[in-house]
Amino acid sequence: MAKHKPEKEAKEKGYTAEQITVLEGLEPVRKRPGMYIGNTAKEGFHHLLSEVVDNAIDEAMAGHAKKVEIIIHPDNSATVVDDGRGIPVDVHKQTKKSALETVLTMLHAGGKFGGDASGYKVSGGLHGVGVSVVNALSEYLRAEVRRDGKIYTQEYKRGKPITKVKMVGKVPPKDFWQHGTKIFYKPDAEVFTEKEFDLKMVLDHYRQQAYLTRGVHIAIMDERGGFSYQYYFEGGLVSYIKHINRNKVIKTSPIYITKTVDQIMVECAVQYSDEFTETVLTFANNIHTPEGGMHLTGFRSALTRSLNNYGVKNGYFKETDKITGEDMREGLNAIISVKLPNPQFEGQTKAKLGNAEVRGAVEDVVGSGLEFWLEEHPSDAGRILEKVLLASKARLAARAARDAVIRKGVLEGLALPGKLADCSESDPAKSELYIVEGDSAGGSAKQGRDRRFQAILPLRGKILNVERARLDKMLSSQEIKNLVIAMGAGVSDQFNIENLRYQRIIIMTDADVDGAHIRTLLLTLFYRHFPEVIKRGYLFIAQPPLFRVQYGKSAEYAFSEKQRDEIIERFLKEAKEKKAAKIKDLKQEVAEISQAAPEQSGEVNIKGVNVQRYKGLGEMNPPQLWETTMDPANRLMLRVEIEDAEKANHIFETLMGDEVGPRKNFIQTHAKTVKNLDI
Length: 679
Description:
This protein is α+β, with helices and mostly antiparallel strands. It has 4 domains: 7-231, Histidine kinase-like ATPase, C-terminal domain (Heat Shock Protein 90); 240-394, Ribosomal Protein S5, domain 2 (2-Layer Sandwich); 416-544, 3-Layer(aba) Sandwich (Rossmann fold), CATH 3.40.50.670; 552-608, no CATH class. It is 38% helix and 20% strand. The protein has 22 helices and 25 strands. The strands form 5 sheets. Strands 1, 2, 3, 4, 5, 6, 7, 8 and 9 form a 9-stranded mixed beta sheet that branches. It is globular. It starts with 6 loop residues before the first helix and ends in a 9-residue tail after the last helix. Mean pLDDT is 84; it is low at 1-12, 112-118 and 410-414.
């Protein structure tokens, strides 16, 4: 590791207190933490760590750091260490305080303002807000800075300094950590409702950051379980695109393009697979922008133009052929990362990049890079263009099938499928559609429902696995066709969420392997072809009870084995108390009944307790189905959400795709965690 530059050289480069710009004070953070970190639950708790680590990664992006260490302590406090330049400790002219204290106690104070190239040219942090917000929302924070061979520290309590910045010693000459910043913080228990780190969430996020910051070494240590992880990707985005495509049949080698134009660094990796879907991840200053923005627009424009020019030039198609951008993106896997001085994000969540100048920069860099690559790799280019032509033919066939479905609905006066038992309510916000497995369960649901607002659509058997089918084949399935018509919002590029007839769509299947399979097929359908339904929070999974427990005239439903045992214990306890009997053998009696309870459909009577096990919805009569699964006052439902699109994409490809190997490995890995498997 290189020795740290003396203070004189650091001043010449300009990273001193003069580069710390102050905009406003800190006090509002504790009053309204949600404005700064989103919420005080799981996401906000983890956001604190992100803000501290972002500062360390900013140092790496600026070329001043090579290693970042993250340590999660047993009490869920955390330490973040980087080997960057170290936060300046000299006195700031405006605040008359140490620059370290200024950065940690004032909002919008940091090296990311002022526009001076000696601060940060690009930044992924919350525009300088981050570390001060972490300080404000921590019951204790300790900062340690190593600069110029000296060690400086300062301590804080709930955002207020409890010590001054002081030099506590010199850096040992042989110490591997010669310069940089170390932040220890303990999140304030008075602020957060979630107080534990989710290791998986931490690992996923910082693996991604390591991919995006090529050459940086990120080490994560979890002292709670003694785990240690190291991430380092010399290949950067090329390594990332290979990771995304690890279970896919690849059509081309990775395409890597990078160039800086007008202070905007553009970097992208592209690779085609034999999938029918498009996977594109976009980032601005290492911040994921799930809704895309100008960098995505520029990329798509460049891709369409480059492939069109190459295809016409080499006789794959004519200029008059109606090849679309959609055709050129089938099977596309791409990662687009831009780094720029002043990113303009739309919305508090930074979901979309709005800088207009980024579009032109990305279009120029990707366009020229792709054209050069296509000329240099004619075999790969040929495979891409052949896939484009096949996608074009499939699109025309899919359009005919889609139009036929939509036209059928229009010509029949929006006549709904015969099996659909619709509701009388016309307001989508008050209406819900139950997709039910089988005619038997459908019959019970139709009889048990509230006809005013609940519609029932029974499915016959298992629907088509759409992960392996294009749209034309998908719409040849009568069950899927019925569902599309029932929802009323169209499909493919003509899908309009505003026309959706129900704002609660509920998948209700049996609690067995077949039911789980049907549920998975339906989730695949919605994820691939109606993702907006999931994003709006309109898709749910019904949770029918697994058991009915009766003792005398009292009966209750249980949705898990644990809940079943709790009900049995309560019934027995009440009975014994009425008889003034001893309760010392209660646990043993509960265990005996639990062991005797049926795993398959059926019932058992022991010690006066009747336990009935449900496996099919059809086993419940209509009043029971209404009471347990459909009555809004009692029912239990799971809302389907997409926490991580990349991870969700990988799971669907693994479980529902053509490749057998990854699916077999998944089953072997998780087989031991499955309980009560029907064979």
